[in-house]
Amino acid sequence: MNMERNQSLWGDAWQRLKKNRIAMACLSLVVLFTVLAVYGEVLYRYHDIKDTTPAYQNTDLDMAFKAPSSKHWMGTDGLGRDVMARLVQGVSIAYKVGIITSLIAIPIGVFFGCIAGYFGGKVDDFVVWLYSTFASMPGLLFILAIAMVVGKGLLGIYLGIGLTTWVGICRLMRGEVIKHKGQTYVLAAQALGLSSGRIIFRHILPNVMHVIIVTFTLRFPAAVGTEVFLSFLGIGVQDQPSWGLMINSARMRLWQGIWWEMTFVTLAVFLLVLAFNLLGDALRDALDPRLND
Amino acid sequence: MRFYVPDHKLFISGLLAVLGSFLLSGCGGAEKDPAIGNGETVSYSQTSRIRGLDPASAGEVSSSLAIARIYEGLLEYDYLARPYKVVPLLAESMPEVSADGLTYTFKIRKGIYFQDDPCFLDGKGRELVAEDFAYSIKRVADVKNVSSGFWAYNRRIKGINIFHEASMKPEPSDYDMDVEGLHVVDSHTLEIVLTEPYPQLLYVLAMHYAFAVPREAVEFYGNKFVNHPVGTGPYKLVEWRRNSRIEFVRNPKWAETGRIETYPETGTLEQKAAGLLKDAGKPIPFIDRVVQYVVDDTSTSWMMFLSGQLGSSIISPDNWDVVVTPDKSLNESLEQRGIELISSPYTAVYYMGFNWDDAMVGESDDSGQDLRNRKLRQALSCAYEFDLMNQFMNNRYYPIDGPIPTPLAGCLEKPSPYRYNLDKARKLLAEAGYPEGIDSKTGRRLELSVEMGSADTNTRQSMELMADMFQKIGVVLKANYNTWPAFIEKMNRRQGQLFRLAWVADYPDAENFLQLFYSKNESPGPNHSNYRNAEIDRFYEQIRTMQDSPERTEIYEKMANIIVEDSPWIFMFQPMSFALKHSWVENYLPHDYPYGMGKYRRINSEVRQKWIESYGDVKLNMSGRN
């Protein structure tokens, strides 16, 4: 017991997470997806550097719409390409979108949330006004507008999703920082004459890190979902196998009983989103100090 | 009326044209419609929504088809002749053309009467006179009619622009104003005077923008005229319920005044074998009554077709796989029941164009580089595999070997030297300076980008297929998918390296396609490749004002050969139009300009009756898997 008490917040959380079977299953799923994403990215980079066309882009109309078999585990699509190979490439696109949009949204949200919460007053008013303004704009329209400005493709998706989704984390951070501002360690740091920047980012931020982690795990699948439907609508990924594009092309033939492409892609999206969401929930529980006993 | 159509849209419009060209038919026996007398031959068919029945203002296919049942023009397209040609209809004969090609003199047939209508004195239709044509053409030029057809006369007919501008004033347009180029010599002679030779005028005069409209009707009905057509044609309107049902009946004025039109007597041997000549010389129209329904839902119209309520049907994309087998023949169980699949190439060219402004694929000041760029274009043409593209599109395409589509005079008979041939493509590519596709300057594979005007699944997949074809010779193709307005904007600004476009014939003359290579038509004109070739320009200026003749066809072929050699486009395909018809619709021949062709069709009522009675006895295999 004593040993555990002495562990850090993270060690503590890990211990609690380990006891949650569903969370562990989700974690292994996430690890599996991550491995696939890395594999897909490496494959893409490899072909890019070697200047060759990867196998998942090769068409063969004689093999079009073949049902799953030992050769093609998930069947082939309308151009005779292996669905599984494309699905794996899709994971890497989904991951890129999830990670990069988080890298855009989270720093913005954290920065504004922290300064608003810490300084209060005019700064707070400004930030609240800013995020209220952003929140009042319909997200999809905003993303479409950005995609129109920077052009279709991944960059548009990154910016579109990244620049619209920082509001949630900004609010959370603001609330957390306000809560921490009155605590004794912050008052002590202020009494020592430390600069505001240092207090915010060196003292408060590590104490609210768990909020960021949880937000990330919840933000990630949402971003993937957004990418899928933007690509489905044709304004997302252009020439790489994205899940949205795959679903879009699969839907035309679904009524004829060509179910595999749609099924496997949908299943992949479903599993990825579910795994991240459950993991995020479990992490929140594990990291919440109030549940500590 | 020129179209740049994104592929899927064009496909639909192609089908529409075929649908339109059906005057589908059936017999009235089984219908519980009291208005239809016994023994009448009735045609039941589908139509798209009709906006109005005024020849001057109508624009879309469905309205034009309805108008062409009621109204007529000086000329019409021959039903059977291919290549398409125009023949006299309300004119006694083809016009006399002056030596300078500027004056067309039409003798108008005597004894042609408008249908009876309250707008005339004592309700009796009067005789058609030359003034009616002059009046009708002025109506198209009248700004207040918002006609979609003024382009056909704009700056072509002498003085028409003066009338056009005068009509912009707020007061009612003065139709008594003289237009120099529309000269009524006597009651049955019309002289059209042009500003420059315009051989395509004859095709324009076969369009509904030149159909004879009686001034009395326009003035009597005012803005209700769109609902009250008064024409000389084979049918008259009985009832029109907007967006629901339209009904025409044989124009009784024809019998009353003894007007007799006959089915064409000359056709090819194949047409004879197909039974298209068995009515040769017989008086038309064969069908007494035409009833058309607006059915928006494709599955409803499909069921109506199967049960025999409609004589023909388009094949909606959802039904394609069920109806047509991969080798382009009809589903067996439909075929056994006597349903016929009608397909014909559509007079259009789909192409991938190279931008002449681009340093890599276009023109270069350095003659050596210029030659290498040409070899690159030829190599890419050789890498394009038509069969694969056709397989992808369920065999709905027709190969094309040059800038002029079949069946236009001037289309090249022999296969292009730059048809699919991988070895040749690799060789040409190496000669162009890209051995194995490697650009020696960068050491990487040559990368080209193509601009697309839509981003739907079909377009996207066809480009992925195209990229794979180019990849076989080591060239990387990247597609940029734009919205249609953004694409047109890029085209007009001469941006982009490659692009994909289509051109649909406005009239059956290769001139319509060759103008796309005339340097003065460069973007924002229709020559979006910005192709420049002094020789082509010279030839084009020569043929622009030439009458149809073997010499002109010879020049067409010469131009086509030069263009194939220069390869400013990869000639991709000509789309096919597909439709289904029941066996009781007879004398059916697909026509690219189907307006007014309904009068040649015939219905076999007995066959239709049998179908309706036996429908449901045999289950049709509609699973799509044979």
UniProtKB/TrEMBL annotation, chain A:
Family recorded in the similarity comment: Belongs to the binding-protein-dependent transport system permease family.
Organism for this UniProt entry: Pontiella sulfatireligans
Protein name: Dipeptide transport system permease protein DppC
PANTHER family hit by this protein: OLIGOPEPTIDE TRANSPORT SYSTEM PERMEASE PROTEIN AMID, OLIGOPEPTIDE TRANSPORT SYSTEM PERMEASE PROTEIN APPC
Pfam families named among the record's database cross-references: BPD_transp_1 (PF00528), OppC_N (PF12911)
Residues annotated as transmembrane: 21-40, 93-119, 126-149, 155-173, 211-237, 258-279
Top-rank lineage group of the source organism: Bacteria
Transport as UniProt keyword: yes
One example of a Gene Ontology biological process annotation: protein transport
Membrane-topology annotation of the record: Multi-pass membrane protein
TrEMBL record, chain B:
Subcellular location as annotated: Cell envelope
Record keywords, A-Z: Signal, Transport
GO molecular function: peptide transmembrane transporter activity
GO CC annotations on file: ATP-binding cassette (ABC) transporter complex; outer membrane-bounded periplasmic space
All copies of domain Solute-binding protein family, residue ranges: 85-523
UniProt xrefs under SUPFAM superfamilies: Periplasmic binding protein-like II
Domain of life: Bacteria
InterPro entries: Peptide/Ni-bd, SBP_5, SBP_5_dom
GO biological process, one term: peptide transport
One Pfam entry name: SBP_bac_5
The family this protein is said to belong to: Belongs to the bacterial solute-binding protein 5 family.
PANTHER family: PERIPLASMIC BINDING COMPONENT OF ABC TRANSPORTER (PTHR30290), PERIPLASMIC OLIGOPEPTIDE-BINDING PROTEIN-RELATED (PTHR30290:SF10)
Protein known as: Glutathione-binding protein GsiB
Biological source species: Pontiella sulfatireligans
Gene name of the record: gsiB
